[in-house]
Amino acid sequence: MAAAMLSVAVSVQANQPLRVCADPDNLPYSNQQQQGFENKIASLLAKDMHRTLAYTWLKQRQGFFRQTLNADRCDVVIGVPTSLDLVLTTKPYYCSSYMLVSRKDRMLNISSYNDPALKDLKIGLHAIGNDGANSPPAVALGDHGLAGNIYGFSMWGNEGDQNPQGWVVDAVADGRIDAAIIWGPFAGFFAKKHGNLLQLSPAPVDEKKPSLAFAYSISMGVRKNDQAFASLLERSIRRQSKTIRKVLTSYQIPFTESDACSPAA
Q1: Range of 56's domain?
Q2: Which helix (H) or strand (E) holds 234?
Q3: How far apart are CA 8 and CA 134, in angstroms?
Q4: Which of 3, 24, 125, 127 could potentially form a cystine with 57 if both were Cys, beta carbons 3.0 to 4.6 Å apart?
Q5: What is the pLDDT of residues 218-237, one digit of tens each?
Q6: How far apart are CA 47 and CA 1, in angstroms?
Q7: pTM of the model
């Protein structure tokens, strides 16, 4: 009897759609046209798990998890930092870091926030604003007396703006700023359209704060009490690991093997 009940429960769960919480306009991650790499990965997992795919769309700003995952409107966020304590995370499936973006013809070789060259540079960062704490690059630049060199670029833009996440990279390409320090997936994806004009290198760590993380492992996030579903996702991730890696590579996601990253799943 118990085995039969378990079989029915598994069957019901298997017939449920894979309900994904996602941002409707946040390339290269996701958009409503399902053009982002997280959309492609979600589609892979749904097919692997023999489920249909359903989305709940909401801008990933303050209150995102409360209004989506924890409101039971959806069941998984495809990409979250492995260390995020708001959710139960799977084992990580990739690791990336903040990247320094500059023009190749500038021949910038910045390996430290103590580099005197930084004092004369306009440095673009994504402005997070009241949606979260300052980014690690903002903290490092501020601690080294370089707050005045920071040029903030909106992550979200205004209603109707196309891909504002890439504006900071465009500003480097056309010479309005000298360099940008931004999260790796944004750097790799938006630099691609500029061909060989730009160079990317891992952002320096902060010598004054070696514990300040510039690299993060990325997992999938589910509700904290949903261990069974997290295990199902992990098995699917393992089965599709090579294809997931190909998807990430096709979007120019820079990988890192930093000590700050947990071992990959």
Answers
A1: 2-94+216-250
A2: helix 227-239
A3: 48
A4: 24
A5: 999 999 999 999 999 999 99
A6: 31
A7: 0.89
Q: Looking at residue 157, what is its pLDDT?
A: 78
What is the per-residue pLDDT for 3? 45
Is residue 124 within 8 Å of residue 228, measured between CB atoms?
A: no
Per-residue burial over 85-110, b = 16 or more CB atoms within 10 Å of its CB, e = otherwise: ebbbbbbbbbbbbbbbbbbeeeebeb
Asked whether residue 169 falls in the same domain as residue 237, the answer is: no
pLDDT at 131 (0 to 100): 46
Q: Of 70, 43, 49, nearest to 58 (Cα)?
A: 70
Average of pLDDT values for 63-71?
A: 96
Q: What is the 3-state secondary structure (H, E, C) of 208-220?
A: CCCCCCCEEEEEE
The answer to whether residue 30 sits within a structural domain is yes
Q: What is d(CA 238, CA 250) in angstroms, rounded to the nearest whole number?
A: 19
Q: How far apart are alpha carbons 191 and 133 in whole angstroms?
A: 25
Residue 49 lies in a domain: yes
Answer whether residue 78 is part of any domain.
yes
Same domain, 224 and 189: no
